[in-house]
Structures are given as structure tokens and as C-alpha cells.
Write a structure and sequence with these properties.
With 249 residues, the chain is of the alpha+beta class. The protein contains twelve helices and five strands. Helix content is 66%, strand content 10%. A hairpin with a 2-residue loop joins strand 4 and strand 5. Helix 1 packs across helix 4.
Length: 249
């Protein structure tokens, strides 16, 4: 409420000075000023929405700036951690990172759309960050995917990732074994690797990075230095990608 009142004062006065002077007023002057503000707002209620819009725009701009700073600061961990899957054009000028969870409905919704975007843009280097946040089944699926990546390589991981996103059923040792077999992976070896410290460390590192970037849900995307928190429509993703491309070029 205090932020909204301050924003209203900005709108009404048009100056920072008056907002600062308000704190120096006597109780009587404040009461008089408050009565004047109330009267004005009753006569012009649209000013409330204008003030709220100003405040929201400022907060949105500040959040975007903070996200860009984080993306720039942690660009190396995002794009070159040495263990995450890299698809698209490995030498692409634009790095696009997705934090995902195989039980996340919005990740599944975005799956084909992101695949189409990467396929249609030859300058995109696509990095997948396994971030299981939706329970034990999510963790198990990510362990399986990373074990396949370690043992069988990126091509088989890509098929495993696709099958996991499309699988309609519970993730457990048996179903993951079958999915890995369908993907062309060495399923017995995957089962051996899933519980190894190396896989645990990969997931732990991703969680630490996500916490540093204030990523609290999936999907979350980092395209260049632009952070997209949550699912957005394909046309918006393409628009963001084009803005990043122009900045890069």
C-alpha cells in the first residue's frame, strides 16, 4: 500500500521533491494533504490504475535488468558446464538454455515447440539443464536421462529426452528401463549409473545454479541474456530470439 501511495503522489505531484517533503509534514499538514488526495481520487479514480501501472512497469523493468545481470554473470555455468546436453548447432552464436522437469506439464507442452524453434534457427545452440523439482519420480527420470547421456552420448540422450517427455505413466525402475531400451541406450548400464555420485553431483550443480538464478519452477529458459520464466507461446519465444539475435549481431 505504501508503494501505491508513493506512486500516486508521483502522479499527482509530478515531482520526487513533493514525495520527499511529505515525510517532513506536520500531522495537520499530512491530514490536509491526505484529504486533498482522497478528494482528487474520488473525482479521478482512473489515476489509481495509472499509478499502479507506473509502479508495475518500474518493477518489471527492474526484474528484467536483474535477470540480465544474472544471465551475464553465470553465462559460463549456463552454457558450458561440461556435462549438460548440447543440441542444435553446437557452434551457434546464440545459446538457449532450458531448465526442465519430465513431470512438468508446461515442459511437455513446450517440448515440440522448442524442438521446432531449434530446428528452424541454425544459429541456436540448445542446452538442457535437468532440474527435477516435482518429486521422486522427477528425480528418478532425470537420473536415468543423465546416465544415458554419460554412457550413450548426446544422440541417444536426445531420443531418451523425447520419450520421457511423451511418456504417459509413472516413472519407476521398470518403465525407465523400457524407455531407455526404446531409445537405443544400454539400459542395464543406465540402471547401474543412475545412483552414482557423478549423477547426483550433476543434479546438485543444476539445483545450485537454479537457486542462484532464482529459478523456482520449470520450464525456465535463458536465451542469450534474456530470461523467460515459465511457458510462453511460440510466437513470443521467436520474438525474444529475434531480439537476442539483433543484439548479438
Amino acid at each position: 500500500m505504501r508503494k501505491i501511495i508513493t506512486a500516486l503522489i508521483f502522479v499527482l505531484s509530478g515531482s520526487l521533491a513533493m514525495a520527499q517533503n511529505y515525510s517532513d509534514m506536520t500531522p495537520e499538514e499530512r491530514a490536509s494533504f491526505g484529504d486533498a488526495v482522497r478528494e482528487y481520487l474520488l473525482e479521478n479514480p482512473e489515476v489509481i490504475m495509472e499509478a499502479v501501472a507506473i509502479l508495475q512497469n518500474r518493477e518489471r523493468a527492474a526484474a528484467v535488468g536483474a535477470d540480465r545481470e544474472l544471465a551475464e554473470r553465470y553465462a559460463e555455468q549456463l552454457g558450458n558446464d561440461g556435462y549438460s546436453y548440447v543440441g542444435g548447432n553446437p557452434d551457434g552464436a546464440i545459446t538457449m538454455v532450458e531448465f526442465l522437469d519430465y513431470r512438468c506439464g508446461y515442459c511437455r507442452r513446450a517440448h515440440d515447440e522448442i524442438a521446432a524453434l531449434v530446428a528452424a534457427n541454425s544459429d541456436v545452440r540448445f542446452v538442457v539443464k535437468e532440474l527435477p523439482v516435482l518429486g521422486d519420480e522427477s528425480v528418478l527420470a532425470s537420473r536415468a536421462a543423465l546416465a544415458v547421456l554419460v554412457n550413450d552420448g548426446p544422440d541417444v540422450y536426445h531420443r531418451m529426452n523425447d520419450l520421457l517427455m511423451r511418456f504417459d505413466g509413472p516413472f519407476n525402475d521398470a518403465t525407465l528401463f523400457d524407455i531407455a531400451t526404446e531409445a537405443g541406450a544400454d539400459a542395464p548400464r543406465m540402471s547401474e549409473l543412475m545412483g552414482q555420485p557423478l549423477i547426483t553431483e550433476m543434479i546438485s550443480n543444476n539445483r545450485t545454479l537454479a537457486a542462484t538464478l532464482q529459478v523456482t519452477g520449470t520450464p525456465t529458459f535463458v536465451i542469450g541474456t534474456e530470461m523467460v520464466r515459465g511457458y510462453v507461446a511460440p510466437e513470443i519465444m521467436n520474438s525474444i530470439l529475434e531480439e537476442v539475435r539483433q543484439a548479438v549481431n
